């Protein structure tokens, strides 16, 4: 905290020389770990370039920040750079000519060679031109288990999803919530997508969301996933929390057996002083199919028509992918770097598992890259209803799922 | 007749000039903005508004969406309860406050202060108070009533009443203050006359004061009702629309689809339906109110 | 010339006394059944309204470990002011770690002109609508009321475009205009209906005396409508001070209001929620409206007859 405060002070005092620009960067990273991570970027930017980072943080996630970003851009008074989940979100702004083509920086720095997996850069590419700078990889396919909760119920810690489901009843008898699931809609659809990617396989998810294959969505393969989702629903009955980190906290305090959540949950365990392997267990791919999705964040750069700002934008794009900044940023954020050629010996056990899977090439695109946000929103609505209302049969839910896939673009 | 026209135009000139900001706001922002919204509700605009017309597609999808239907049902329940209860509570409190009580300023501030807090915080604090593990239920059980059950936020069928409790807490103070201002606008002579005639107090209120307060009541109704139609942050903070979708409201649908789902067309279609419902109520009212040419 | 004193005499009769108090019926002896009922009710109501505040204050004085124990009603075992210091001066918004203090003056700069201007415009609107009706006035008024029901978010983009076209996008002036516009329906309604409920004879007598539009407004209507001005101020100060959406969309980081920091403190989606800091931040942000509520109480007590005599 002190360090951050000093950094702000330093930022404020940095004299602005000729040709140097103040670059306003808008993002929604405001929690402790996130802010510490974004500070690494600002630090590197201020130290290594003549330009100054002006921070425009807005909490509340994309839903809050997005209208701000879009208003500023269509209001003709854009910020210098802004964070978006890369994927299909920014397509329209690019088509409307509101975002700057950053291909020249990408070619100069050889992004094509260093960015791993290549799908990250593809998500930034429209018509062969590169419009964004990917900065990290976040994956969803993790099962977090409380070792003590299972010990208390007299069970071994499960190694995969099926064992976990089997342990459900015993956990409940021991007065432990088997599966913690927060009430926010994105958590429900996230859980389902993880079940689909691991139990049916990543290729099924890619086929359904990427190709909008309604037939596959209606198939028996998917029916089994919906059955598994019904199991999960039963195990999640009674976990009356809303925020994802409240659900994680149930696992930390051994009130719940486990939670399916992305790698960002790690930060919560770390803050609570829990040690991987001793206090909790992280299982990638639910122990069924070791795969990680390569979603994450990226920065986009609006057209400003101002030469100084453009120079600053170029400089920022270079800094974001710089090996040193990548390590510093991702260690703070708990995410994986977007280039395989950096040294991450400081990473903890769970992160290392993720890195191994990444090196082995067991990756899949993030749902964000395949679906529009509109489709994701519809899926959120469907699954939050499904996971909270036992009267909806898996068959009904599948039917609605098929119609969402059919109507998706 | 023809010569009367310019005089008509210049009559009341000062008032017309003074009303220019209002006329501009009404025409440019409210009529213009609404028309814009309606037009774009027939498009498939996503992140940016774009004039790519798709007919009634957005409406068809809207009315086939379970969440929208649930949202409307919730708004009806919440709206009716909120309107009736805040009106009654607000009036009774204002009448009590008007009895020359001591510490009026303190009481008024106590009842009004929740209005100073944002809905986000109102939602959060009532989420705690209604939490079964450490809120009211826990305390009552601690007092010895072990079987006491009060867990509205985790029960799909009554969750909207949990939101209502918080909404009332936040909003009744303002209604009370409005009514109190109205009561203070009533001529002292009325009370004197009623006392001289020996009319009981409740009768004075019911038959003399209440009819005189009609304009203030209308103000209160509009303020409460517009707050109801736009209710959003409270639900987001208190329940996030859950459990499941059982406390969703229309304004949340609009916002979620506009900015989270990046489907402006769908959001506009939903808000057009909301505004249509409002218009259906307001236009006949305005006709009754102004058609008869009687001064309120 | 319209002499307000003669007007009030014309209305209330010759024996009007300058009253400084509430207008309800005359008070009775102290421990009457009626008084017990009134004060009893007020006390019960006060407890209901104060309970959440109690929880907020108590929570803001606890450390996080104590909050995790779970009893929200128990008083703090160890009082700490850390959360308050943090909320005011240390909490981070991204990289800027100077808490709520960062946006405080911005909020003042936004709120003062917006409240003043919106009440000025809307009170004149209400006055014109109730006393100087012109042709079509009712239609505009109906549109305004309709406008009160429009969800703000729907209007974000059209207003961005309008502000861009008149060159005010991103400036303080633009934000003030937006607040005046969105405050207009409710506040106009407030004044229009209040003026409409005043005795019409006041206005007519002044007209007979030859007073014009502005003269009547300043000399008769204003002094008589203090309570409704207070209500308008309460609504506008609260609404504008607590506004997050317009502040964040129509300005830039260096002019962000305090609520942007509050949002960032309360609304951080990832990471541990610091409930004690949240509560302290909330109370701190709410202080300005709260002070207004309390201070304006004096103006509130004045009644119509008193206003007419003194004005």
Short key terms for the protein model shown above:
heterotrimer, B: 296 residues, mainly alpha, MetI-like fold, 70% helix, C: 311 residues, 16 helices, disordered N terminus, disordered C terminus
Describe the structure.
The complex is a heterotrimer of chains A (about 400), B (about 300) and C (about 300). Chain A has about 400 residues and is an alpha/beta fold. Chain A is about 55% helix and about 10% strand. Chain A has two domains: about 1-10 and about 20-135 and about 295-355, Periplasmic binding protein-like II (D-Maltodextrin-Binding Protein, domain 2, 3-Layer(aba) Sandwich), CATH 3.40.190.10; about 140-295 and about 370-405, Periplasmic binding protein-like II (D-Maltodextrin-Binding Protein, domain 2). In chain A, strand 4 (about 125) and strand 5 (about 130) form a beta hairpin. Chain A is globular, with a radius of gyration of 22 Å. Residues about 1-20 of chain A have low confidence and may be disordered. Chain B has about 300 residues and is mainly α. Chain B has a single domain (about 15-290), classed as MetI-like (MetI-like fold), CATH 1.10.3720.10. Chain B has 15 helices and no strands. The mean pLDDT of chain B is about 85. Chain C has a domain at about 100-255 and about 295-310: MetI-like (MetI-like fold, Orthogonal Bundle), CATH 1.10.3720.10. In chain C, helix 1 packs across helix 9. Mean pLDDT of chain C is about 80; it is low at about 1-20 and about 305-310. The radius of gyration of chain C is 24 Å and the shape is flat. Chain C has about 300 residues and is an all-alpha fold. Classes of the chains: A alpha/beta (about 400), B mainly alpha (about 300), C mainly alpha (about 300). The interface of A and C includes residues 4, 24, 38 and 271 of A.
């Amino acid at each position: 905290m002190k360090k951050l405060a000093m950094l702000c002070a330093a930022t404020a005092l940095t004299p602005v020389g000729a040709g140097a620009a103040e670059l306003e960067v808008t993002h929604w990273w405001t929690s402790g770990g996130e802010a510490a991570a974004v500070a690494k970027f600002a630090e590197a930017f201020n130290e290594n370039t003549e330009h100054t980072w002006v921070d425009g943080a807005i909490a509340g996630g994309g839903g809050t920040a997005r209208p701000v970003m879009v208003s500023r851009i269509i209001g003709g008074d854009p910020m210098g750079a802004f964070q978006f989940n890369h994927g299909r979100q920014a397509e329209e702004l690019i088509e409307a000519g509101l975002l700057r083509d950053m291909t020249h920086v990408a070619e100069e720095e050889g992004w094509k060679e260093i960015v791993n997996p290549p799908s990250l850069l593809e998500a930034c590419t429209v018509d062969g031109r590169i419009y964004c700078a990917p900065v990290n990889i976040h994956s969803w396919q993790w099962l977090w288990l409380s070792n003590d909760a299972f010990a208390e119920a007299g069970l071994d810690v499960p190694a995969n999803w099926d064992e976990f489901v089997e342990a459900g009843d015993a956990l409940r008898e021991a007065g432990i919530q088997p599966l913690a699931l927060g009430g926010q809609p994105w958590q429900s659809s996230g859980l389902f997508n993880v079940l689909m990617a691991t139990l049916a396989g990543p290729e099924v998810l890619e086929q359904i969301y990427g190709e909008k294959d309604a037939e596959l969505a209606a198939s028996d393969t998917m029916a089994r996933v919906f059955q598994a989702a019904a199991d999960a629903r039963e195990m999640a009955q009674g976990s009356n929390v809303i925020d994802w980190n409240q659900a994680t906290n149930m696992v930390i305090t051994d009130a719940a057996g486990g939670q399916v959540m992305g790698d960002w949950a790690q930060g919560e365990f770390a803050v609570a002083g829990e040690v991987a392997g001793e206090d909790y267990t992280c299982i990638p791919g639910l122990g069924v199919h070791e795969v990680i999705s390569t979603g994450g964040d990226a920065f986009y750069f609006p057209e400003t028509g101002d030469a100084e700002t453009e120079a600053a934008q170029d400089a920022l794009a270079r800094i974001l992918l710089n090996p040193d900044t990548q390590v510093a940023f991702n260690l703070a954020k708990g995410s994986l770097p977007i280039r395989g050629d950096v040294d991450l010996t400081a990473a903890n056990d769970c992160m290392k598992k993720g890195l191994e899977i990444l090196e082995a090439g067991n990756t899949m695109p993030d749902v964000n890259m395949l679906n529009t946000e509109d489709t994701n929103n519809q899926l959120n609505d469907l699954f939050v209803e499904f996971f909270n209302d036992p009267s909806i049969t898996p068959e009904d839910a599948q039917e609605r799922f098929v119609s969402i896939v059919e109507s998706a673009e | 007749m023809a010569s009367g026209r310019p005089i008509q135009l210049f009559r009341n000139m000062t008032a017309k000039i003074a009303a220019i900001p209002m006329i501009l706001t009404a025409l440019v922002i409210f009529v213009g903005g609404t028309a814009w919204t309606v037009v774009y509700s027939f498009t498939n605009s996503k992140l940016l508004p774009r004039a790519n017309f798709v007919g009634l597609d957005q409406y068809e999808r809207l009315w086939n969406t379970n969440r929208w239907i649930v949202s409307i049902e919730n708004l009806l329940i919440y709206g009716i309860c909120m309107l009736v209860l805040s009106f009654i509570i607000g009036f009774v409190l204002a009448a009590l406050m008007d009895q020359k009580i001591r510490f009026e300023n303190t009481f008024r501030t106590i009842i009004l202060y929740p209005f100073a807090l944002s809905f986000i915080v109102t939602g959060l604090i009532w989420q705690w108070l209604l939490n079964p593990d450490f809120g009211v239920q826990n305390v009552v059980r601690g007092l010895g009533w072990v079987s006491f059950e009060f867990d509205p936020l985790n029960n799909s069928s009554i969750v909207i009443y949990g939101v209502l409790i918080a909404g009332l807490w936040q909003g009744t103070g303002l209604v009370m203050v409005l009514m109190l201002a109205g009561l203070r606008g009533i001529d002292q002579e009325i009370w004197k006359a009623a006392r001289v005639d020996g009319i009981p107090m409740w009768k004075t209120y019911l038959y003399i004061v209440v009819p005189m307060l009609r304009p203030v009541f209308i103000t209160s109704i509009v303020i409460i009702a517009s707050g109801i139609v736009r209710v959003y942050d409270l639900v987001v903070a208190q329940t996030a629309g859950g459990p499941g979708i059982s406390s969703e409201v229309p304004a949340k649908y609009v916002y979620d689809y506009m900015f989270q789902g990046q489907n402006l067309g769908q959001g506009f279609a939903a808000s057009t339906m909301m505004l249509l419902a409002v218009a259906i109520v307001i236009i006949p009212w305005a006709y009754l109110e102004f058609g008869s040419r009687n001064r309120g | 010339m319209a002499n307000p004193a003669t007007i009030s005499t014309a209305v209330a009769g010759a024996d009007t006394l300058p009253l400084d108090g509430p207008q309800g019926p005359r008070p009775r002896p102290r421990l009457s059944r009626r008084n017990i009922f009134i004060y009893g009710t007020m006390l019960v109501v006060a407890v209901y309204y104060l309970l959440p505040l109690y929880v907020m204050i108590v929570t803001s004085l606890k450390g996080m470990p104590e909050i995790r124990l779970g009893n929200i009603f128990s008083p703090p075992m160890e009082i700490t002011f850390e959360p308050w210091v943090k909320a005011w001066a240390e909490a981070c918004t991204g990289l800027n770690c100077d808490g709520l203090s960062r946006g405080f003056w911005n909020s003042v700069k936004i709120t003062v002109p917006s409240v003043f201007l919106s009440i000025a415009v809307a009170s004149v609107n209400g006055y014109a609508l109730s006393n100087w009706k012109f042709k079509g006035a009712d239609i505009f008024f109906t549109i305004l009321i309709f406008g009160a029901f429009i969800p703000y978010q729907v209007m974000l983009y059209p207003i961005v475009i309008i502000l861009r076209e008149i060159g005010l996008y991103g400036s303080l002036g633009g934000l003030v205009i937006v607040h005046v516009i969105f405050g207009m329906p409710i506040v106009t309604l407030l004044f229009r209906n209040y003026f409409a409920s005043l005795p019409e004879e006041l206005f007519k007598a002044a007209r007979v005396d030859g007073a014009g539009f502005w003269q009547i407004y300043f000399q008769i209507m204003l002094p008589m409508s203090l309570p409704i001005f207070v209500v308008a101020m309460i609504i506008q100060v609260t609404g504008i001070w607590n506004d997050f959406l317009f502040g964040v969309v129509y300005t830039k980081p260096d002019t962000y209001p305090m609520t942007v920091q509050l949002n960032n403190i309360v609304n951080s989606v990832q990471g541990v929620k610091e409930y004690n800091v949240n509560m302290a931040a909330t109370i701190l942000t709410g202080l300005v409206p709260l002070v207004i509520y309390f201070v304006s109480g004096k103006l509130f007590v004045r009644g119509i007859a008193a206003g007419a005599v003194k004005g």
